[in-house]
Amino acid sequence: MRLRQESHGGVNVISMDGRLDSETAPRVQQELQALFPDDGLVVLDLSRTMYMSSAGLRVLLLVYRQAQRSAVRLALTGLSDDVRAIMDATGFLGFFTVVESVEEGVEALTV
Questions:
Q1: CA–CA separation, 41 and 32 (whole Å)
Q2: Domain tally for the chain?
Q3: Which domain holds residue 101?
Q4: Could you tell me which of 27, 11, 7, 82 has the C-alpha nearest to residue 49?
């Protein structure tokens, strides 16, 4: 799993590329914490996340909680059908603003 951070119109976009599973989750969690701002706008782009296990869902929950504790507005984009179905079944979709593209995420957060 590789993480990459870019800025799009003042919005931090963090892209995740690879598998988010029990093997990669601890490192990804640490890297996300380091990339996550104390305030502002963040789009988490999962369009290149090929697989997400329950350990990956836990990472997303921790990201959500981190955003709630700080002044960060967060959106998710690029959910595969499988990831979306898992997040829907577990109720996780209700925690996040979910959009179809990075551009939609930037727009949703800056309105």
A1: 14
A2: 1
A3: 2-110
A4: 82
